[in-house]
Structures are given as structure tokens and as C-alpha cells.
């Protein structure tokens, strides 16, 4: 038939075209750190080919099937040959993957006791001898642990580590490792710089974008085990039955990857829609005229809704709540407390083992004149009163994801409440997905910050992972930087921040340097020159960004709303949203006096830290203008005046960007051309932007300073 021939012709053309286009299109970044580039080191290749000749994996669960497919594809790509599935664990080069339940080989090896303390997610990688043949075992108590173990194993190969004498024992240090998507139901993403939302709500639940699986795979490969799907500024409609069906479909897809879904909920959801003001923020989807958490009708509304959610999603994770913050409704609208609000939801979730993540990002001006003090003041008095399935979730710093802040003093000050740390992966205040800023060094600085809450060693990490105050429930959340851009994150190097978040959530003791090393090798290849150059670029990029935006403890001087580019002169609107409120540059100097003579925000830290910050001579210079209003002529550690030092920092920041660009250009011949151009374009822009930051801020501050000099006495 003619149309059959025609179809065949079209198919052939399509195939040939896609082949040509595919060949012409080089690396578009879609493959993330899971590209599985062929091992090009001949000796390594020989070693790996000997070490893995056959894959033995038991079980037919969805997760087992995912593992099988991942191993087959990855090994084929890495080793350039098909590795068959086999049955005999005694074969030389057998890669045995199993749990004591499903694998006789794992049982025979007596690994059960070693697995005892590894929970559902931990795993072992061991070189072993079965008979007189060498093989490798990946063992865990549960399929999820196996999946993590397999990704770890593949990472060893991707980073060209030796497979001889493997003896890896791993388990996560933090239990809930969650990505928070600030995705709206209309497909836009709040503070998203990588296209639209990944979730195609209009297509779900019937049509499924294959990307969902790659998203889940990428998360599983770095140990992320939860996803909050929607914006904290939550649209109540997410709880409508039609949406729950869509959410359930995603949950079904993510489950075999060890990922549970969570939702942000709007506290006013039980209200009838007629209360709607400010778009969707205050009106609900119910038929009640109150959302008072102590009202029996409201409580049963939440109970019923929660029960319904679990009928759709039996392992639903729980609710994230932004309440009484930036116009979002909350219990205080009814003269109730955060405890009343959180515990009501916690009670509805408890029978299903769900949790509440109640955000501490609140800043009611009535609470204190200094915004930095407000969440501490609201939450510390509530310690000990939250239900056991409630996390309070503070951001890392006391203001708002600034390039650098001191740690949020709530950490360590609520010993009876598990605190889930909220980090921001998306670069809202750090140049969006245009600037290359590697965030692992920043997160490490926070993790290692010693609060002295229970004496020396009370680091943020030790508080968050439960060791200091003995919490079994532990968690960390990162505001995602993922969208539907082909390369997921907008900037190729923003992928490194997604990667680093997952790695640190699993093990916060990892070094930023090591994580960069892994990411570069897996993403850009194993060329030593590329590795060295790119790592250098990455490791100094955060400090450089601080320098060209907000050095020496400055903060919140960006352009309003958009949060991109400098706006030091901004002084309109709500006081605590303006730049001049924060930098306070005036006749005498610059900086926010938060000492005991000023707002006394220092008083919220434990004595040793408080005293360190209080004293201008001991306050670390990186926080100087956060805590002190400092005279322009004050001598800094460098011997320079503050003004000269400030200038020096701004110039140091922009110089670093110029160097990154120059260094990147030296790599042109060694990199994929698309990747090269993609990053080069962004570095070009970063160079311009950083100079704008520097010049705008210095000009402005200079005027304030000059005004001083020339101002009439
Ligand atoms: C601020 C963002 C805003 C978020 C808010 C939050 O500008 O878009 O809604 O944080 O965390 O940084 O709730």
C-alpha cells in the first residue's frame, strides 16, 4: 500500500535526520553526572573488565528492575561491552547485588550482622572471594539500599577509582533528604532560573513525561529521598482530588527510586473560595468560614483530607507549611500559635506516619525592629510543645539565603524540637543560573559553624544530624534549582549544586573539594588539566561572588523583587525590605549594629559566640558589617582602612570572575564545543554583572562617605 511505503520513507528520513542532528548536537547537559563516559584509560579498562564479567541480581521488584537496567546500560557504556546477567555467584568477576532476604550468596557471606546497623538505605560494597574466584558484592537490607550501593559502585568507576579490596560501609547521616520545588501549578517556578516546572500538571495523570524517571534516577544517584512538589506559597488547589491523582502518579513513578512525595499546603485550605484575596493566597478549597486550628470542623477537614491523600498515596511524606509569613495565612490569623497550627496537621498525619515541616521563615515587624531576630523570638518559646512528627524548618541564616550570613541562632536553641535545615540550591541571591557559583563551600561553612549550644563541637551539622540533642528524626531540605530546561538547571555548573546538595545531605563530612572532583570527572571527563582548572574555578567562586556582591558581612543590597543585580540605594517600601535598612551607610560608617548597644541580635547566640561577634576586634571580618556599624577609617586586619578594604574586596571579586573566564578559555580544545560555548557565554555575562555590582555599590557607598566629609558640621 502506498501509505505504508510513505510511512516507511518518513521513518527512514526521520531516523537519518535524527542521526545527523544527534551527531551534530554534542553534549547538551541532559545526562547530568550520569553520562557514563567510556573509560579511556586502557589499564583501568582492563582492570574493570576483569572485575565485572557478569551481573547477578535477584528479585523482581520495580527497584530491582531499575537496578538491572542501570547496571546493564552503565557498564555497557563504561566498559564498551555488554555485561551479561548471570546466575553463578562463584563465577570470576561476578557482581552480586542482593539483600540477605533475596540472595543466598549474600546470606552465605555472613553479611547480615554487618548490615544490621545500616537501616533501609545503607549498603556495603565488598570485594570477596567465593570459592577461589574474586567477585564484588553490593549488599543492603532493602532494595533502596541496593540502588544507592549500585550508584556508588558506578561512581567509583566513573571517577576511575580502584575496585580492588573494596570495603565500603555507608549509611546516610540525615534521614529526610528533600528537594523543595517552589513550583506553581501554572507551570511557573518561584525563583526558578531553568525554564518552567518539570511537572506537567495538565498532562498528568494520563501522560507521563519520561523526564520524571530521569529526575528520579538523578536524585537516587545522590541519595535524595524526598521531593516537595509545589511552592511554599502554596495554592490550595493542590489538595483538590483532581490534583491528588496527578501527585499520586508522580509518587508511583518515584517510589521505586526511594523517593517519597510531600506537598506544601496552604493553611487556609479549608476555607471557602469566597475568602480569596491576593490571588489564591487566602481563599481555600473547602466550605468552611474559618481555618482556626482549634476549631473542630477545621480539624476534621484536615483529617479527612489527609486520609484521602493516603488513599491515593500510601507512603505520602507529609506537609511543608509556610504560615504567617509574607502574607501567607496561618494560625496567628486566629490568635493561635505555630504550635497549634503544626500540631493540628501533625495529628492528621500521625496515623499514616507522615510529618510536618513547619517553616521558621517568619518576620513579623511587631516582634522586633531587627528582622534578623524574629524567628528566634517567635520559635524559641515554643520549644518542647510541638508533636513528635513535627520539624521546625529554619533557613541556614537569620535573614534570607544571602550570599553569606552567620548561622541562624535558632539552631541549638530549640533542643527539644528536631530542626530541619533549609538550604537554597537555586541561586536567588547569587546570580541566578547565570553566575558560576559553587555552593558546597558555603554549605560546609554552615555545617561547620560551631554554635557552642552544648559546648565545643556543637556544630550546625551535629545539631541537624541529631547527635547533639539526640533526635532520631533528622532532615535537610534544599530549594531546588531544577526546571524543564534541557540541561535541567540552566547553567551547567548549577548541576554541581544539585549534586553537592545530595552528597552533603547524605554525608555532611564530605569535603567541597572532593564533591567537586567527583562532579567534574563525571560531567566533564577525566582530563587532568580540565579537572585541575575547573576545580580551581569552582572552589573560589562562592567567595568571589560574596566579594563582588556583599563583602565583609554586607547583605540584602540587591535589586528589589527580581533579586538580580545591585540596588544599594533602594529605600522605598517596607523598611525591612530595603537595602538602606540593611547597610546603613551614613556619615559615620557602614554596617548594621547588632551588638548589645544596637539591636542585640548577638544576644541570641550562645555566650562564646555572642562575645566573639559583640567585640568589634574579635568579630570575624566576614561578618563584620552584619554585626557592627563600622567607621570608614577603621583599620582592618590588612592594615588598610575599611573603605580601602571594601574596595579591595569588590575588585578581588571581579578579578576572580575575569580569571575564571580566562581559565575556561584555555580549555576550549579539551571540552565539548557546546558545553564550552554554553559556559563561556555565561561567564561573559558574569564578568559584566560583577563589574556592575562593584561599580554600583562602590559609587553609592562613596557618595555616602563623601556626603559625610562635605556635610556641614
Ligand atoms: C524569599 C523569596 C520568596 C520566597 C521566600 C520564602 O524571595 O520568593 O517565597 O523567600 O522562602 O527568599 O518563603
Please explain how this structure is put together.
The chain has helices at residues 2-24, 42-51, 62-79, 104-108, 112-115, 143-158, 211-221, 241-254, 296-312, 338-349, 374-379, 440-447, 460-464, 494-506, 512-524, 528-549, 579-583, 607-614, 624-627, 642-665, 673-710; strands at residues 54-57, 94-98, 123-130, 133-139, 167-170, 176-180, 226-228, 260-265, 318-321, 355-359, 390-393, 421-424, 475-479, 589-590, 630-631. With 713 residues, it is α/β, with parallel strands linked by helices. The chain has 3 domains: 36-170, Chitobiase/beta-hexosaminidase domain 2-like (Chitobiase, domain 2, 2-Layer Sandwich); 176-510, Alpha-Beta Barrel (TIM Barrel), CATH 3.20.20.80; 543-592 and 629-706, Alpha-d-glucuronidase, C-terminal Domain (Alpha-Beta Complex), CATH 3.90.1330.10. An 8-stranded parallel beta sheet has the order 11-10-9-8-7-6-13-12. α20 (642-665) packs antiparallel against α21. The protein is globular and about 80 Å long. The N and C termini lie far apart (97 Å). 51% of the residues are buried. The model is unreliable at 6-25 (pLDDT under 50). Bound molecules: beta-D-glucopyranuronic acid. The site of beta-D-glucopyranuronic acid has 10 residues, from loops. Beta-D-glucopyranuronic acid (BDP) is lined by residues 190-191, 232-233, 322, 326, 361, 400-401, 428.
Amino acid at each position: 500500500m502506498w501509505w505504508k511505503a510513505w510511512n516507511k520513507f518518513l521513518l527512514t528520513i526521520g531516523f537519518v535526520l535524527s542521526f545527523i542532528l544527534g551527531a551534530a548536537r554534542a553534549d547538551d547537559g541532559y545526562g547530568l553526572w550520569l553520562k557514563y563516559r567510556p573509560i579511556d584509560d586502557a589499564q583501568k579498562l582492563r582492570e574493570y573488565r576483569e572485575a565485572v564479567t557478569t551481573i547477578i541480581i535477584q528479585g523482581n521488584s520495580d527497584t530491582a528492575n531499575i537496578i538491572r537496567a542501570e547496571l546493564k546500560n552503565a557498564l555497557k557504556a563504561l566498559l564498551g561491552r555488554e555485561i551479561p546477567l548471570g546466575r553463578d555467584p562463584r563465577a570470576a568477576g561476578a557482581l552480586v547485588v542482593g539483600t540477605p532476604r533475596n540472595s543466598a550468596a549474600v546470606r552465605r557471606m555472613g553479611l547480615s550482622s554487618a548490615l544490621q546497623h545500616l537501616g533501609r538505605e545503607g549498603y556495603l560494597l565488598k570485594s570477596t572471594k567465593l570459592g577461589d574466584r574474586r567477585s564484588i558484592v553490593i549488599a543492603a537490607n532493602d532494595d533502596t539500599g541496593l540502588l544507592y550501593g549500585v550508584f556508588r559502585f558506578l561512581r567509583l568507576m566513573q571517577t576511575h577509582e580502584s575496585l580492588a579490596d573494596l570495603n565500603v560501609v555507608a549509611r546516610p547521616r540525615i534521614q529526610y533528604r528533600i528537594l523543595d520545588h517552589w513550583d506553581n501549578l501554572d507551570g511557573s517556578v518561584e525563583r526558578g532560573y531553568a525554564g518552567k516546572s518539570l511537572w506537567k500538571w495538565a498532562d498528568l495523570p494520563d501522560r507521563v513525561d519520561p523526564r520524571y524517571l530521569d529526575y528520579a534516577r538523578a536524585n537516587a544517584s545522590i541519595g535524595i529521598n524526598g521531593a516537595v512538589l509545589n511552592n511554599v506559597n502554596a495554592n490550595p488547589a493542590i489538595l483538590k482530588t483532581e490534583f491528588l491523582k496527578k501527585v499520586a502518579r508522580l509518587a508511583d513513578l518515584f517510589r521505586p527510586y526511594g523517593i517519597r512525595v510531600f506537598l506544601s499546603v496552604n493553611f487556609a485550605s479549608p476555607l471557602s473560595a469566597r475568602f480569596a484575596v491576593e490571588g489564591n493566597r487566602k481563599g481555600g478549597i473547602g466550605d468552611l468560614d474559618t481555618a482556626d486550628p482549634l476549631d473542630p470542623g477545621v480539624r476534621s477537614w484536615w483529617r479527612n483530607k489527609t486520609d484521602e491523600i493516603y488513599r491515593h498515596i500510601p507512603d505520602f511524606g507529609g506537609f511543608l507549611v509556610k504560615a504567617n509569613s509574607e502574607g501567607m495565612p496561618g494560625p496567628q490569623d486566629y490568635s493561635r500559635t505555630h504550635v497549634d497550627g503544626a500540631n493540628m496537621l501533625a495529628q492528621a498525619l500521625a496515623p499514616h506516619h507522615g510529618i510536618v515541616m513547619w517553616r521558621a521563615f517568619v518576620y513579623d515587624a511587631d516582634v522586633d525592629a531587627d528582622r534578623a531576630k524574629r524567628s528566634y523570638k517567635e520559635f524559641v518559646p515554643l520549644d518542647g510543645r510541638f508533636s513528635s512528627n513535627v520539624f521546625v524548618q529554619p533557613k541556614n541564616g537569620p535573614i534570607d539565603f544571602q550570599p553569606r550570613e552567620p548561622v541562624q541562632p535558632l539552631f541549638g536553641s530549640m533542643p527539644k524540637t528536631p530542626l530541619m535545615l533549609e538550604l537554597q540550591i537555586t541561586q536567588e541571591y547569587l546570580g541566578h543560573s547565570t553566575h558560576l557559583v559553587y555552593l558546597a563551600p558555603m554549605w560546609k561553612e554552615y555545617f561547620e559553624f560551631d554554635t557552642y549550644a552544648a559546648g565545643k563541637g556543637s556544630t550546625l551539622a551535629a545539631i541537624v544530624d541529631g547527635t547533639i540533642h539526640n533526635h532520631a528524626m533528622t532532615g535537610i531540605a534544599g530549594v531546588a534549582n531544577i526546571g524543564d530546561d534541557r540541561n535541567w538547571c540552566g547553567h551547567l555548573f548549577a548541576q554541581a549544586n544539585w549534586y553537592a546538595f545530595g552528597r552533603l545531605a547524605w554525608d555532611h563530612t564530605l569535603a567541597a573539594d572532593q564533591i567537586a572532583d567527583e562532579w567534574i570527572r563525571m560531567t566533564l571527563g577525566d582530563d587532568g588539566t580540565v579537572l585541575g582548572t575547573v576545580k580551581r574555578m569552582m572552589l573560589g567562586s562562592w567567595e568571589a561572588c560574596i566579594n563582588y556582591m556583599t563583602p565583609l558581612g554586607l547583605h540584602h543590597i540587591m535589586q528589589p523583587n527580581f533579586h538580580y543585580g545591585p540596588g544599594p540605594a533602594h529605600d522605598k517600601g517596607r523598611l525591612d525590605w530595603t537595602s538602606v535598612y540593611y547597610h546603613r551607610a551614613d556619615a559615620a560608617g557602614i554596617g548594621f549594629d547588632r551588638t548589645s548597644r544596637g539591636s542585640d541580635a548577638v544576644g541570641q547566640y550562645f555566650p562564646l559566640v555572642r562575645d566573639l561577634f559583640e567585640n568589634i576586634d574579635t568579630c570575624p571580618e566576614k561578618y563584620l558589617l552584619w554585626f557592627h556599624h563600622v567607621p570608614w577609617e577603621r583599620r582592618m586586619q590588612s592594615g588598610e582602612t575599611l573603605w580601602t578594604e571594601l574596595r579591595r574586596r569588590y575588585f578581588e571579586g571581579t578579578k576572580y570572575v575575569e580569571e575564571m573566564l580566562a581559565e575556561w578559555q584555555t580549555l576550549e580544545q579539551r571540552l565539548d564545543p557546546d558545553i564550552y560555548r554554553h559556559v563561556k557565554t555565561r561567564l561573559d555575562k558574569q564578568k559584566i554583572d560583577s563589574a556592575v555590582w562593584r561599580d554600583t555599590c562602590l559609587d553609592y557607598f562613596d557618595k555616602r562617605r563623601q556626603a559625610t566629609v562635605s556635610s556641614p558640621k
